[in-house]
Amino acid sequence: MLIQVYTQKMSCFTSNVYLPFSSKVQVYKPCLSYQFINPVQLRFLSSVKLSQPSIFSRQTLNPVVASTTTETGATVFEKPIPSFRNKNPKDINLLVVGSTGYIGKFVVKELINRGFNVIAIARERSGIRAKNSKDETLRQLEAANVCFSDVTQLDTLERSLDDLGVPIDVVVSCLASRTGGVKDSWKIDYEATKNSLIAGRNRGAKHFVLLSAICVQRPLLEFQRAKLKFEADLIKEAEEDSEFTYSIVRPTAFFKSLGGQVELVKDGKPYVMFGDGMLCACKPISERDLASFMADCVLDKDKVNRVLPIGGPDKALTPVEQGEILFRLMGKEPMFLKVPIGIMDFAIGVLDFLAKIFPSMEDAAEYGKIGRYYAAESMLLLDPETGEYSAEKTPSYGKDTLEDFFQRVLREGMSGQELGEQSIF
Ligand SMILES: NC(=O)c1ccc[n+]([C@@H]2O[C@H](COP(=O)([O-])OP(=O)(O)OC[C@H]3O[C@@H](n4cnc5c(N)ncnc54)[C@H](OP(=O)(O)O)[C@@H]3O)[C@@H](O)[C@H]2O)c1
């Protein structure tokens, strides 16, 4: 039986200190529980200054505490800690980091639609090349409780969350390096993501939903190694505390990664691919479908403590098949340009050599490797029995097909589907 020891029962405004809990006993300082912050207050607060906790009104918790008498006659107050999974979504507080990314924005929207209380951490300038102002970020994360902070600095993140003064039930991370560079990958895909785990755990989080990538199965790139290291930390955390759980989501290719040639082909250019165009395949998944799958991970017990590879509803598609869909939609004869993969290997060799002499070229060499990886490796489940990628064993989810997506881009262009800062993924 889990025991909560309530040391005081009073409202509090300033002592927003959440101590790291032991797994079995939670000793709360005066701040026992709060009525969740009204989103309007928080959005106002976050856009002004986070360190003004007195704006909030907090309700004193009036727990119904069961008491038992021990053999020695002492009365022990006991109360099982309710699993967040038994609560109403409106009473479940989700901390979302990476909320301003391609997937993160959709995840925030989906979680809000499902009625959760979403605290979205954002930078004061967000988006690709920091193009979004605070107002634009607030607009994009409409209805979320937006908290401007810095996930790369644990103490800053902790202070921001202290100022909010709310417990966290679940952390959802859609963080990712925007560059894929060597140092930035470790800083974001590992360290900042770890900061969100620590800060969430210090506020009671019992579950972590991680957006990872299916390509970590065959790790050759730094961002994959950084993601794998965090996945391992998450699994260890769950092994050490049976009340803590995780869902690691490893999606296949995103639509944005496959749409880059639509407008070129529309302008009469050939569809470019490497090798014979059959070197790799994927089951692409839309932002909306992936966000829905990630939202399922918050409450679904069958997704607990699992690594979850996930693709979209299409069958596995090679670059040739993707190109054929596109030409068919345009009513044109397919026109392919097949580039020998050896050209990429040569370029990577040159970049690697230069990076050894000029360390500042380390990231350029890494981008070459990322491009090579996506040109030749399938984004499908790697079958441990055969060591081969398996289309059949890659689970499908959702409704949005690549054909729908190509149709939309032909009609409306690539707005909202921009690639990251390195224009690779
Ligand atoms: N592309 C694909 O086909 C594919 C396929 C499978 C899996 N994945 C994986 O999916 C993940 C997410 O992808 P995505 O496209 O949604 O990512 P994204 O659009 O690049 O978003 C990255 C998020 O992380 C935040 N972030 C990055 N650097 C930060 C920093 N220094 N400080 C604070 N926040 C920072 C960004 O905030 P700002 O807005 O403030 O920059 C943004 O919210 C990646 O891990 C990727 O490997 C991608």
UniProtKB/TrEMBL annotation:
Record localization: Plastid, Chloroplast
GO BP annotations, alphabetical order: chlorophyll biosynthetic process
Range of residues in the leader sequence: none
UniProt pathway: Porphyrin-containing compound metabolism; chlorophyll biosynthesis
Keyword NADP included in the entry's annotation: yes
A Gene Ontology molecular function term of the record: 3,8-divinyl protochlorophyllide a 8-vinyl-reductase (NADPH) activity
Listed name of the protein: Divinyl chlorophyllide a 8-vinyl-reductase, chloroplastic
Organism from which the protein derives: Erythroxylum novogranatense
